[in-house]
Amino acid sequence: MLPLFLALALAPNPAGARPADFPDWLQPHVGTGEGQIAPIVLARARALYQEKQRQGIARNPCYLAMDATRPSTVRDGQPGRRFYVICEAARTFRAVSAGYGSGRKLPGADFSNERQCARHFSNAEGSNLTMGGAYMTAETRTSFKGYYDDSGQTRAFHRTFLLFDGEGETRNARERAIGGHPAMFVRWQCRLRSPDSPHADPDGYVPFGKLVNYTGGRSNGCTTWSGSVSQDIISLVEGNPTSLYIYPESRDIDAVAGAVRSGIPPSGAELSGAELSEAGRYWNSACLAAIGAPKFWPKRILQPVIDRWRQSLPERRPLALPICQ
Q1: Strand 205-213 to strand 218-219: parallel, antiparallel, or no bridges (unpaired)?
Q2: Which of 122, 176, 280, 318 qualifies as a FRET site for 325, CA 20 to 30 Å off?
């Protein structure tokens, strides 16, 4: 009998992805190394983009992809690159860092993710989890998030949010307010007197705090990028939507979890990129070793848990910040 990991590697590949299937210029970027894209992720991202092109929905020369099985940081401590911008006409490939959903720890259900590797995934509203599958980029919305100190200068922070439209398991992306934005927010600390500000409250105060950068970390389920990368991506797709494919989908998560239960080595057996693609059961080996096995929480199971938790919360009083000194 073949060892389980070898039998898994020889199983039919639903994506049919082989490095030879991709253009020559792209092949050096295909694999499981840092800065590369796994074959199955690229194959599905290309297939989605080509479908949207045929439908006349995507006219952008570039498309996007994300591999949420990869770690947040790599060996040198830098953010891990798991989001991809691919422009085949221009023959450009860019791999950048991106955040994934943090999840929650609620009474009766702990679906929280650690900072390094994502274990839990879901499309339940309020889960704060990533949901793999097919998306299209949509419109942008820019909102005021507060004031902060920048080397002695008080500045307003406005964050642009790129909405995603999903289909299939991701079709509730709008309901979940899922999209992409800079991994930055203002942690409010006090109310600053600024009566001339367009954001001042009736008493002439604005929220003031510390600008927090969480590039490569966790989010509320959205895709988050560094400030400069966000500008590049939003400029690329604003008014010219394109496809985004996020891996893994529920079928991938369930398949990998089932393989682990059946005895596949937790390390992921360190298969090559081609073998992983052949298996149709890809997961980043470092993160598989860290999480043991991934878990997908179907909306029908997790949504009632979240709704009960929300109903149990006491009524919150309006936030009353102290006045800045």
Answers
A1: unpaired
A2: 318
Q: Residue 115: CB partners within 8 Å, gap ≥ 6?
A: 72, 217, 218
3-state SS, residue 148: strand
- Residue 302: Cβ-neighbour burial (10 angstroms; 0-12, 13-18, 19+): buried
Question: Could you please report the per-residue DSSP string of 165-228?
Answer: EE-GGGTTTTTTT-EEEESEEEEEEEEEE-TTSTT--TTSEEEEEEEEE-TTSEESSSEEE-HH
Q: Which residues contact 50 (CB under 8 A, 6 or more apart)?
A: none
pLDDT, average across residues 97-106: 94
pLDDT digits (tens, 9 = 90+) for 207-253: 999 999 988 778 888 899 999 999 999 999 999 999 999 999 999 99
User: What residue type is 174 in one-letter code?
Assistant: R
**What is the identity of the amino acid at 299?**
K
Q: Both tokens of residue 87? A: 């422009």
Residue 271 has pLDDT above 70, yes or no: no
The alpha-helical segments, DSSP class H, found in the chain are 4-9, 39-54, 227-237, 250-261, 273-279, 285-291, 299-312
CA distance 95 to 120: 23
Question: What's the rounded Cα separation, in Å, for the pair 283 and 132?
Answer: 13
- Name residues whose C-beta falls within 8 Å of residue 205's C-beta, 6 or more positions apart in sequence: 191, 192, 193, 194, 323
Question: Tokens for 238?
Answer: 């604003």
**Count of beta carbons in the 10 Å neighbourhood of residue 223:** 26
Instruction: For residue 304, give the 3-state DSSP assignment.
Output: helix
